[in-house]
């Protein structure tokens, strides 16, 4: 047995109180009448006192009661060794769909419950559920929280290395750009939903698109194909640099996706955006070729840092090998894992300038190999002032689902190498019950005790 607050044991000093009461047994002296007091001098009254314990059992009860109260102040507990095996397993399901889940997977759930698994709501707080929650008392709506956020949050609730069975569908719209990493063994059992198709109309950069979605993919088709002015783009790269080919491939993808004509390196025309892929300063001629309110994207030169890190873009973490130290106080658009600027933006004299502190080169980073590269360039190429996000939104009718072959990454924890862990179990309830029983017994004995009368 251990105590949470050992200082509470100082209250044991109170045991001296019942001991003093029982030892201090005072008896008054008895008056004796005699026939003549002539020969006797006046004597003072005297009382006899004896230090004697008359009731050992009652003393023991009172001392024990005070001792229990002192222990309660110290908050006693026992250390129990808990194993992180299947007895700590969880069953996760949205409370709104728990009835459907139980009806469909009754045999599996019953088997898990017999092994000691507990049902929890797949929602914030992971509230425990019972079988009563599977009958009629259901939530009106399913939660719309990100599965990535919920699975990451479960790392703080589920015992490390425990086994978890999650009964839920796998819509891609409920995940972010990256899958979560969990420290428990997750078995995801997808609900048996039939393949569905859906469509909706969305807008981007002044155009309307019809989206058609199925469990495998979502496609967009431009509805208004009216003639539009092309986007003129100039690319300058220094001799010996081949970064331009990656940029051109991304620009062609943007043009194909948006049905917007993009002209690269036009002759004798103002350009909408210029890419300066060189360590040399931007020439006045190149800068003057950019139209009013156009954009300039340029490589920055400075101190080279080769510490491995990542570029953070739209929630993705892209490997970064090299970067240039930024002393620019402009708005950060892309950063590395430590918050250092990788891409900044500022507008001066009707020129929108992007300062890039890395390169479009696989030796510097893996950005050009990542699908987010095209999405990240789109707001610079097609400047949509009203778009909240660069690219198309995550629509609630998106039917895409995470492939059944795609597993959630599992990261073992220290608890797995030490399968037995300590857990504290409070003994306060037992001590309160014992104190109550002793108090009642002491009161009964006290009232039943007969007073001693002295016969004269």
Automatic annotation (TrEMBL):
Tell me which residues make up the Aerotolerance regulator N-terminal domain: 1-76
List, alphabetically, the InterPro entries matched.
Aerotolerance_reg_N, Double_TM_dom
Pfam families associated with the record? BatA
Q: Which residues form a coiled coil?
A: none
The source's superkingdom equals Bacteria
Q: Does the keyword Transferase apply?
A: no
Assigned keywords, A-Z: Membrane, Transmembrane, Transmembrane helix
Q: Which PANTHER family match?
A: BLL2463 PROTEIN
Full protein name: Aerotolerance regulator N-terminal domain-containing protein
Give the lineage: Bacteria, Pseudomonadati, Bacteroidota, Sphingobacteriia, Sphingobacteriales
């Amino acid at each position: 047995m251990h105590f949470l607050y050992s200082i509470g044991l100082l209250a044991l000093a109170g045991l001296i109180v019942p001991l003093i009461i029982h030892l201090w047994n005072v008896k008054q002296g008895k008056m004796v009448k005699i026939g003549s007091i002539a020969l006797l001098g006046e004597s003072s009254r005297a009382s006899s006192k004896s230090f004697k314990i008359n009731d050992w059992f009652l003393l023991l009860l009172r001392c024990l009661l005070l001792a229990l109260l002192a222990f309660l102040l110290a908050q006693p507990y026992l250390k129990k060794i808990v194993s992180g095996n299947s007895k700590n397993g969880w069953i996760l399901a949205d409370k709104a769909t728990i009835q459907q889940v139980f009806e469909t997977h009754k045999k599996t759930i019953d088997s898990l419950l017999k092994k000691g698994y507990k049902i929890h709501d797949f929602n914030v707080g992971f509230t425990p559920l019972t079988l009563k929650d599977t009958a009629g008392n259901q939530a009106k709506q399913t939660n719309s929280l990100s599965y990535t956020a919920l699975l990451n949050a479960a790392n703080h609730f589920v015992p490390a290395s425990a086994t978890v069975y999650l009964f839920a569908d796998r819509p891609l719209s409920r995940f972010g750009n990256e899958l979560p990493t969990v420290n428990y063994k997750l078995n995801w059992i997808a609900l048996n939903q039939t393949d569905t198709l859906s469509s909706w109309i969305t807008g981007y950069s002044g155009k309307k698109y019809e989206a058609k979605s199925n469990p495998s993919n979502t496609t967009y088709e431009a509805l208004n194909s009216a003639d539009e002015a092309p986007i003129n783009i100039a690319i300058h790269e220094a001799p010996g640099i081949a970064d331009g080919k990656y940029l051109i491939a991304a620009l062609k993808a943007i043009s194909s996706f948006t049905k917007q004509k993009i002209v690269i390196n036009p002759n004798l025309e103002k350009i909408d955006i210029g890419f300066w892929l060189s360590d040399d300063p931007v020439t006045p001629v190149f800068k003057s070729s950019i139209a009013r309110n156009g954009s300039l994207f340029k490589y920055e030169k400075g101190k080279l840092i080769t510490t491995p890190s990542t570029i953070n873009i739209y929630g993705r973490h892209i490997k970064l090998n090299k970067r240039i130290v930024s002393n620019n106080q402009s708005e950060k658009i892309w950063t590395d894992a430590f918050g250092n600027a990788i891409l900044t933006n500022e507008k001066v004299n009707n020129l929108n300038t992007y300062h890039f502190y890395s390169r479009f080169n696989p030796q510097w980073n893996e950005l050009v190999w990542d699908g987010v590269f095209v999405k990240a360039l789109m707001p610079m190429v097609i400047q949509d002032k009203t778009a909240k996000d660069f690219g198309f939104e995550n629509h609630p009718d998106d039917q895409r689902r995470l492939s059944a072959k795609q597993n959630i990454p599992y990261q073992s924890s220290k608890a797995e190498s030490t399968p037995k862990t300590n857990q504290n179990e409070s003994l306060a309830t037992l001590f309160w019950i014992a104190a109550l029983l002793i108090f009642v017994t002491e009161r009964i004995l006290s009232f039943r005790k007969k007073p001693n009368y002295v016969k004269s």
